[in-house]
Amino acid sequence: MRPRLVILSRGPKLYSTKRLSEEAENAGWDVRILDPLALTMIVDEQGGKIFYRGWPVECEAVIPRIGYSITRRGVPIVRQFERMGVIVMNSSDGITRSRDKLIACQMMSSGNIPVPITAQVVSWEDTNRAISRVGGTPCVVKSTEGTHGAGVFLAKTEQHARQLVYQMLEREMRPLVQEYIEESHGKDIRALVVGGKVVACMRRRANGDEFRSNFHLGGSVEKVDIDPDFEKIAIKAARILGLEIAGVDLLESDRGALVLEVNSSPGLEGIEKASEVNVAGAVSSRLNYLMQKNEGSINQDYQSNNVNEKYQADS
Ligand SMILES: Nc1ncnc2c1ncn2[C@@H]1O[C@H](COP(=O)(O)OP(=O)(O)O)[C@@H](O)[C@H]1O
Ligand SMILES: [Mg+2]
Question: Is 212 in the pocket of ligand 1 (CB under 6 A)?
Fold first, then answer.
């Protein structure tokens, strides 16, 4: 029987979902794409179950593609799959950590991974002090939660920064004031890490005067050879957040690579096209490896159980 893979995705027609599904099928998996918001679960002392339209969902592996806006509803489903003992690429904890820029930044720094200096502010009156701690203006003001460049601003003056902080706090967002890495203006490097290896990378360039290089803001992508130091840092960043699949964004600063953020559901379209690497194929090879490892440990448990039974029978 072919091992069963569930891809949790709200968009079966999205490039990344389609590619992951296609390559996993090629690698021998029986793939189902399920909308995480259509799944229900039961939690009990035995571990519980997940249902799709009333039918239990059973599988050997899961790839969660939990979009930003559904993090709070999607993560418990991922956790439930973990509880059922299946392979989960990425874990619920990894996803949660990557979604909060402050937590991710703290974890990076605890692993001695270089990051731009980042200050948390809780009141607009903190802004000026935060700006001087991160090296003055211009500085970046960004929301702790957010993606695709939304909620990320370049503040040229202290007054502008204060205004941005004030507006974010009013909307109950959690603002951060961050050192602006000027030498990296409008560009960054995305390294795609799968199973502890950088499998592909690209340079992203912002559109026109824009300082944010996000693909979703019209940024362009190009092939790049990554420096071995950058590679090591990207691998370490994915490892410290506990991510099997990670899109690590690196800024090229005068003091070397700085990790800006780590994405736990990185888009594959830009990077596959720019790097000409079959990233989805690398993901399914990793799945096969983890599956073999799992089977190995199940066999080992089985053998050691048999040894125990034999020992008990003899004694
Ligand atoms: N401190 C910074 N210095 C220079 N550029 C930055 C800085 N922070 C963000 N940027 C630019 O803005 C983009 C979006 O910021 P990021 O923190 O990754 O937010 P998002 O999660 O929305 O992508 C980055 O890819 C980068 O091009
Ligand atoms: Mg980003």
Answer: yes
